[in-house]
Amino acid sequence: MVIDCSDPELLARFWAEALHYQLEPPPEGFDDWNEYWRSVGVSEDELGVGFDSIIDPEGDGPRIWFQIVPEKKSLKNRLHLDVNASGGRKVPMPERKRRIDDEAERLTALGATVIRVLETEGLDHYAIAMRDPEGNEFDIN
User: Fold this and answer.
1) Per-residue DSSP letters for 71-84?
2) Whole-model pTM?
3) Helix (H) or strand (E) holding 93
4) Quick one: which of 110, 92, 137 has its CA closest to 18?
5) Among 21, 78, 127, 132, who pairs with 16 as Cys (CB 3.0-4.6 Å)?
């Protein structure tokens, strides 16, 4: 999975924390990614800007690479990630709300912003819409 952005390391660090992922370490035998890329012939002007990819430490989820692009985000996302924090419908609604609110507070401390609470009277649903540090929308549910 690839996500376009203006600051790859900022988003890699944010999403690694948000998804309980880790920054992808450079290949064995290399101190950092730039050393690796130099070894395969990438020129100095094409080298990265630090950590720009994350991986699931369990090996189940996809690798996510944050690709630097010159233009800023200007429209609504065509794709967004959901952060599942509630425990699902088997968990009573008051506990699901607490878990979602706690996760929103944790991610706000990491640089996310709350857009709105998604709750409709009579529906068994509660979520919080948020934006990551570059404005990409995601939900906590």
Assistant:
1) SPP-S--SS--EE-
2) 0.83
3) helix 93-109
4) 110
5) 21
